[in-house]
Design goal:
The protein is an alpha+beta fold. Strands 5, 6, 7, 8, 9, 10, 11, 12 and 13 form a 9-stranded antiparallel sheet that branches. Strands 1-2-3-4 form a 4-stranded mixed sheet. The two termini are 61 Å apart. 34% of the residues are buried.
Length: 723
């Protein structure tokens, strides 16, 4: 395990603290030697520990004076003492803090202050654990008085607790000061001038050329310098004089430069680095190297997309995609997107995924299909860089299909076998599916800060798992619908038996439900519905909500069906400030409404109030269409509404897609228009793309038939007039 994780900073740090209790001393010393011979240089170890400390301090607003401080993690706490000790021990190769006095790194006075601070914090921590009866590092108000008493403080002119907390704050202040001084001293020692090769050195954290002719005489240095930055992640940046040399000689990066194999090899080697790739590419873009080396990248540099969907210029968006992809491969970020990180562990050539990210939007602004044009650019680039034929096909395929997974997940019915089968045929293999999933997640997250949410996450994961299962099973024909429904009913009956319900009564309810109900819901959903349906109550309308497996709140409304019920429901939910992401509307044969609305909601504790508010509002609300509230920023952009109709053969319904700028009350107004025209809504998929919505509705006319051409024209005209 140590060999596998030796590049993991947390593992190396833990092993650095190890001491032999019992066992073979030779093996123990061998392990210690392995740690020191790892890829962590003193420079990189120092810089990463400084970053770690900086991020940790940010969690506590960079102050030691919080009223309920964390004695381990906040500024001046135990972790700050450990950080100094870890870096110093790594650099000086010693085992004890006291050894640093002999190395003239710590003065006797500084060592005493550190030890006193450490002992004080250890005492407080031990007492805190005793009082809390568990591991606890936050000195919460509820513990402070008892801590003061346990540590021997007594009331005088000042309360014991005030004396104790004053001593605590003074101690952590001293530790913070020492931490600043000692890390700065280490920085001065470690980040001194370091020779890298004949062209470059690192001086006080900045990489610089060894002479003024480096780029002119050795143009390969234009890429070499960024490869060195990636390899030495403690480098802060590029020396000002070296930057000036680079800018004066940029014209050397021309077509002949691009043709040289050594330059091509270095660029691919840069993408293959385990760390520092994102940093290197950002600097290459900032200083004009990328647009000179890849001229088509120059066409998207500074390119703005004049809409409300994309927050960043295309080049910045692309670099954010690269950053997101790289994070999937870094253990420190494994908890951010666990599925992505698990997939990343199995990828042998991450550079192929990075190339796909680099080229996915490279043809933006040219007109035409940017995905297809970008794929052609990628093929030319990869061939020139002598990638294998199958790797070239993979990169080009990812670029060409980079929108497919997002569009399928957000706009298609993922319970439909044909949708999954069609998508599985398009991706072709589990390997391509996994890479496309990573690229899709990275792409969406790099488009706009608030574009990613739990709902999109759940849809993409659902499509991923269903497609993977489909590819591995080799099934090519859809399951028998009658057999499938029978199995679902049996599973439901088995579940209700365990809950003590009357199975005969449940079977009577089954007779009132249309067949598609059993195909649109999971067994767990049906059991949840039945719990509300069977619940004894005098209420005409019943509402229940829960946090679903998709990390959204599902609101299920059951009761007597009435005209405009869905419209009322949507209006209430919008009034409550909740974002609707999905809706399933169903009316039983005995005229009961089974309406399920999925919304984004952060505070799950509000669900009970939510149910009560909806029930109360449904009894009182009258229907009306309201002027959709506009946002001031919208007036600067094109408001054109796109409406498209198609026929869904499986359910014999009309599918209408509405693409329009998002406005307050938009969905309730659409629902009201459906109500006015006697249109029956069966299903809805609500997709917010930045400030634009791409809503999909499955509808029928009053006769439960697909809309005629005349009815489609009337609906389109009404939507355009009212919205």
């Amino acid at each position: 395990d140590c060999e596998i994780e030796i590049d993991d900073l947390s593992v190396v740090t833990n092993l650095l603290e190890s001491r032999l209790l019992v066992g073979n001393n030779t093996l123990f010393l061998k392990m210690k030697s392995m740690i020191k011979s790892s890829n962590w240089s003193s420079q990189s170890f120092l810089v990463e520990k400084q970053k770690e400390q900086h991020n940790r301090h940010l969690n506590y607003s960079n102050t030691a004076y919080n009223l309920e401080p964390n004695l381990k993690e906040s500024p001046g706490g135990l972790r700050d003492i450990q950080t100094v000790a870890w870096v110093a021990k790594w650099y000086f190769d010693v085992n004890l803090l006291s050894d640093l006095v002999d190395k003239s790194y710590l003065s006797e006075c500084e060592y005493d202050l550190l030890k006193q601070g450490q002992l004080f914090l250890w005492k407080v921590r031990f007492a805190l654990h005793v009082i809390a009866k568990r591991r606890e590092d936050r000195i919460a108000f509820q513990y402070q008085k008892e801590l003061a008493s346990m540590l021997g403080y007594i009331d005088t002119d000042f309360m014991a607790v005030e004396q104790f907390m004053k001593d605590y704050y003074r101690t952590v202040t001293k530790v913070s000061r020492l931490n600043d001084i000692l890390l700065q001293l280490l920085e001065d020692r470690i980040l001194h001038t370091q020779n890298l090769n004949e062209n470059f050195v690192i001086s006080y954290g900045y990489i610089q050329a060894t002479n003024d002719e480096v780029f002119k005489k050795h143009p390969t240095a234009f890429i070499e310098i960024f490869l060195l930055i990636a390899k030495h992640n403690y480098v802060r940046g590029i020396n000002a004089g070296t930057l000036r040399q680079m800018q004066l000689n940029l014209d050397l990066i021309d077509e002949n430069y691009y043709k040289k194999r050594q330059n091509n090899r270095l660029f691919i080697e840069l993408l293959q680095q385990k760390r520092g790739v994102n940093k290197a590419l950002k600097l290459m873009n900032r200083y004009g190297i990328l647009e000179h080396y890849i001229p088509s990248f120059g066409q998207i540099t500074g390119l703005m997309q004049y809409d409300l969907f994309h927050t960043y210029t295309v080049d910045q968006h692309t670099l954010f995609v690269i950053r997101n992809l790289r994070r999937f491969f870094v253990s420190e970020f494994a908890k951010e997107f666990e599925l992505c990180s698990e997939i990343a562990k199995t990828i042998n050539k991450p550079e192929l995924l990075l190339l796909a990210g680099l080229f996915h939007d490279i043809a933006k602004g040219r007109g035409g299909d940017h995905a297809s044009l970008g794929a052609q650019d990628a093929i030319v680039f990869c061939k020139h860089h002598q990638l294998r034929a199958d790797d070239i096909t993979l990169v080009a395929g990812l670029v060409e299909q980079h929108l497919l997974m997002s569009q399928t997940a957000q706009k298609q019915d993922l319970e439909d076998f044909e949708v999954i089968d069609r998508f599985a045929k398009a991706v072709g293999s589990v390997q391509f599916l996994e890479l496309l999933y990573l690229l899709t997640v990275a792409d969406i997250r790099a488009t706009k800060v608030d574009l990613w949410n739990n709902w999109k996450d759940s849809l993409l994961r659902k499509l991923f798992y269903k497609t993977k299962e489909h590819l591995l099973s080799g099934i090519t024909k859809p399951p028998n619908m009658a057999k499938q429904i029978k199995q679902i009913k049996q599973s439901v009956l088995s579940g209700v038996n365990q809950q003590g319900y009357d199975t005969q009564q449940i079977e009577q309810i089954f007779l009132t439900l249309p067949k598609d109900y059993f195909l649109r819901y999971e067994v767990e959903d049906i059991l949840w519905h039945l719990w509300l349906v069977m619940k004894p109550t005098d209420k005409k309308i019943r509402v229940v909500s829960r946090l679903s497996e998709h990390n959204v709140v599902d609101i299920f409304v059951y009761g007597d069906d009435s005209k405009g019920l869905f419209c009322k429901l949507v209006s209430i939910i919008e009034k409550l400030g909740l974002d609707i992401v999905d809706a399933k509307i169903l009316t039983t044969k005995d005229h009961k409404a089974y309406n399920t609305i999925s919304v984004l909601q952060d505070n799950i504790l509000e669900q009970i109030n939510l149910n009560q508010e909806i029930e109360a509002e449904l009894d009182q609300m009258t229907l009306s269409v309201k002027e959709a509230g506009d946002k001031s920023i919208h007036r600067h952009f094109d408001h054109k509404m796109n409406i498209a109709f198609s026929h869904n053969e499986k359910w014999n319904l009309t599918k209408v897609e509405i693409n329009v700028i998002d406005k307050q009350g938009l969905l309730s107004n659409i629902a009201y228009i459906f109500h006015q025209l006697g249109i029956h809504l069966v299903n809805a998929r609500i997709t917010t793309m930045g400030e634009r919505v791409e809503d999909i509705f499955f509808i029928s006319n009053a006769k439960k038939q697909p809309l005629s051409a005349a009815e489609e024209r009337l609906l389109k005209q009404t939507l355009e007039e009212k919205l």
